């Protein structure tokens, strides 16, 4: 493998502004203050693309990593032809995350969650113990693939109802273990399991949005777009569950402003959720700096109704300093509601006019772009980035022998935490 020289960086609190080194899987500022994200500040101000590194690691200048892992793909950006003609858009660029060999896209899990996984798992300053990842499906599939291939101990927690998202073309290594919350639970319940697991000695949280490697890995979608286009787009379209990808896009945009070679504008964040599960939209529509209360039972019912199960985070990084509310207030934009029917129609149109399948969350983003055009929310001459966060899954499944995995243990929603800990500890003895 090509010799690798990591970019030097430090961490910065977005609340108090404190700067400190990244010593031990830091997920928050060491100073006591209000909840806040931390951000990686890279010594390299103007990014260089490294063709000598494979996949995602071509963007290593702005990744908080200490090694390169085998097998990564990277986001691929291209100018739309079919969809742009259909919608009458002059400058629509698609950033595709998934499997599309004809376009040079080789993410074998079919999702941009691989960008997170290959970045997080290359941040090696906590190389001992078992990483714990909660997921609604796509993140679990991506981390399972990366950790299995690179022999990184991993415990996944998912909702049982999302188990069909756990498909693979090769058997997983025994270093990857899976548990689930019972049918009727959702992503929030999977997070509850993960929170119990990390209380065990030797287990540590991946960190979600708090992990700078996760956000900066997701931010490579914007790096791909801006470097390919040569300019910062005017609009950024993406469907959101937690909103972490949108935060990452905003942060990447801010780095490009300091780079100085790609423009001086901030992309408007044109985000979308799958109706009727709309907690972030409902908070943003009121410009509420905090999420609104939601009944657990109602939330689970709404999640059960949506097709894009990965967009079902009840506790997103919205209100904390540097979170989605701050990103939206700084960059501007809107959050749209997209029904299952609208998303299904959008997926059909993308397949017909661009030539590949997209997964349900990406279909929500396509539908939101169509809605924005129909409602005159955007100038058709504007430079637009459409982030297809997952696609080519059906194509990949047709070309490979696919198998599914089952959880080693399924826990009731009201299971005793001590029982959960005992079961988990026994898996890694």
Task: Tell me the layout of helices and strands.
Blueprint: E1 9-13, E2 19-20, E3 38-42, E4 76-79, H1 82-87, E5 91-100, E6 105-106, H2 113-120, E7 130-134, H3 138-150, E8 154-159, E9 167-168, E10 176-181, H4 187-197, E11 203-205, H5 212-218, H6 220-229, E12 235-239, H7 244-259, E13 268-274, H8 279-285, H9 296-305, H10 324-331, E14 333-338, H11 340-354, H12 360-374, E15 383-391, H13 393-399, E16 403-404, E17 409-411, H14 417-427
Parallel strand pairs: 5-15, 7-8, 7-11, 8-10, 10-17, 12-13, 12-15, 13-14
Antiparallel strand pairs: 1-2, 1-3, 4-5, 5-6, 9-16
- What name does the CATH topology of one domain carry? Rossmann fold
CATH architecture of one domain: 3-Layer(aba) Sandwich
Major sheet details:
7 strands, mixed
Q: Give average pLDDT, whole number.
A: 95
Number of helices: 14
Derived structural class: alpha/beta
The shape is: globular
Strand content: 15-25%
The number of distinct β-strands equals: 17
First-residue to last-residue Cα separation: 33 Å
Radius of gyration equals: 20 Å
Top keywords for this entry?
single chain; 429 residues; alpha/beta; Rossmann fold; seven-stranded mixed sheet; five-stranded parallel sheet; 17 strands; 19% strand; globular
Question: Mind explaining what this structure looks like?
Answer:
This protein has 429 residues and is α/β, with parallel strands linked by helices. It has a domain at 76-108 and 213-397: 3-Layer(aba) Sandwich (Rossmann fold), CATH 3.40.50.1100. Helix content is 34%, strand content 19%. The protein is built from 14 helices and 17 strands. The strands form four sheets. Strands 4, 5, 6, 12, 13, 14 and 15 form a seven-stranded mixed beta sheet that branches. A five-stranded parallel beta sheet has the order 11-7-8-10-17, sandwiched between helices. Helix 2 runs parallel beside helix 3, helix 2 packs across helix 5 and helix 11 packs across helix 12. The longest helix is centred in the middle third of the chain and has 16 residues, at 244-259. The radius of gyration is 20 Å and the shape is globular. 51% of the residues are buried. The model has no long low-confidence stretch (mean pLDDT 95).
């Amino acid at each position: 493998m090509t010799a690798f020289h990591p970019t030097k960086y430090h961490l910065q609190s977005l609340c108090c502004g404190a700067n400190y080194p990244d010593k031990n899987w830091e997920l928050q500022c060491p100073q006591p203050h209000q909840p806040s994200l931390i951000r990686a500040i890279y010594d390299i101000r103007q990014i260089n693309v490294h063709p000598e590194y494979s996949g995602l690691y071509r963007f290593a200048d702005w990744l908080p990593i200490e090694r390169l892992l085998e097998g990564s793909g990277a986001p691929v950006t291209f100018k739309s032809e079919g969809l742009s003609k259909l919608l009458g858009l002059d400058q629509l660029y698609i950033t595709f995350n998934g499997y599309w060999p004809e376009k040079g896209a080789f993410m074998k899990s079919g999702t941009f969650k691989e960008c997170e996984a290959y970045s997080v798992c290359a941040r090696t300053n906590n190389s001992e113990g078992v990483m714990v990842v909660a997921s609604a499906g796509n993140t679990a599939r991506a981390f399972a693939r990366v950790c299995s291939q690179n022999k990184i101990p991993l415990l996944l927690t998912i909702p049982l109802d999302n188990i069909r998202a756990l498909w693979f073309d090769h058997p997983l290594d025994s270093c990857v273990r899976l548990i689930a919350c019972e049918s009727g639970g959702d992503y929030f319940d999977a997070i509850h399991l993960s929170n119990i697991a990390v209380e065990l000695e030797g287990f540590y949280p991946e960190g979600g949005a708090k992990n700078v490697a996760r956000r900066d890995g997701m931010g490579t979608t914007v790096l791909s777009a801006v470097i390919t286009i040569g300019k910062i787009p005017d609009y950024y379209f993406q469907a959101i569950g937690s909103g972490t990808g949108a935060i990452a896009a905003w942060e990447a945009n801010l780095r490009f402003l300091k780079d100085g070679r790609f423009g001086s504008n901030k992309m408007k964040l044109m985000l979308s959720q799958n109706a009727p599960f709309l907690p972030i939209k409902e908070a943003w529509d009121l410009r509420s700096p905090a999420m609104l209360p939601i009944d657990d039972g109602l939330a689970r019912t709404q999640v059960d109704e949506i097709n894009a199960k990965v967009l079902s985070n009840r506790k997103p990084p919205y209100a904390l300093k540097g979170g989605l509310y701050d990103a939206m207030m700084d960059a501007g934009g809107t959050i749209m509601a997209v029904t299952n029917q609208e998303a299904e129609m959008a997926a059909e149109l993308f397949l017909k006019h661009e030539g590949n399948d997209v997964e349900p969350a990406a279909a929500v983003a396509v539908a939101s772009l169509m809605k924005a055009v129909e409602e005159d929310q955007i100038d058709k001459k504007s430079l637009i980035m459409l982030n297809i966060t997952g696609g080519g899954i059906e194509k990949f499944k047709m070309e490979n022998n696919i198998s599914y995995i089952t959880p080693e243990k399924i826990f009731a929603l009201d299971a005793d935490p001590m029982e959960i800990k005992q079961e988990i500890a026994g898996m890694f003895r």
